[in-house]
Amino acid sequence: MESHLRRKSIAVLAGLLLLACASGWAQEKAAPSDSLVIKSESKSVTFSVAEFHALPHLSLTVHNAHTDTTESYSGVPLAVLLQKVNAPLGKELRGKAMTNYVVATGSDGYAVVLSLAEIDPELHQGQVIVADQQGGNAIGKDGPFRLVVSDDKRPARWVRNLVAIAVKGAQ
Fold first, then answer.
1. What are residue 74's DSSP bridge partners?
2. What is the CA radius of gyration of the chain?
């Protein structure tokens, strides 16, 4: 009887493990989205690829430690996009607003956090952009949008297949 229960338990655990692995694989292979949602507590804006491409862009050259190469990107500064949802930036970024942060999420569920102070060009020298071009071409297989943080020593906070950016408050 005990060995029957042990075999049954092992079979159940193996099934759960397979389900967990399949679920993780499906999440990792999620298809890129063709839009980008930016939201705050008071407002939400969705950009299609064409609408995003029409916004003013800047170019950025960064070192990608994962590939050990220098890469060039073109995109829209995240601060510009956050202004469209009334995020407190510039002179408004003080006091309680200094506890605000952004969660950037990819279609595979990968998410990173940046403080508004890291994004605001009046407070921080580095560039944070939402890129739609790499090396003069559309980003392609990694989705139409990628978050790129210029001053990071390795691209752990770069988000490929970027689908959502949410402004949140810590307090």
1. 59, 133
2. 20
pTM listed for this prediction: 0.80
User: Which of the 8 DSSP states describes residue 86?
Assistant: T
Residue type, 45: V
Q: Report residue 154: phi and psi, to 5°.
A: -140, 155
- Answer with the residue of higher pLDDT: 21 or 61: 61
Topology of domain 31-169, CATH = Sulfite Oxidase; Chain A, domain 2 (3.90.420)
Structural domain spans, the chain: 1-30, 31-169
Residues found in the chain: 171
What tokens does 155 get?
């691209």
Helix H or strand E segment including 160: none
What mean pLDDT is predicted for residues 111-136? 94
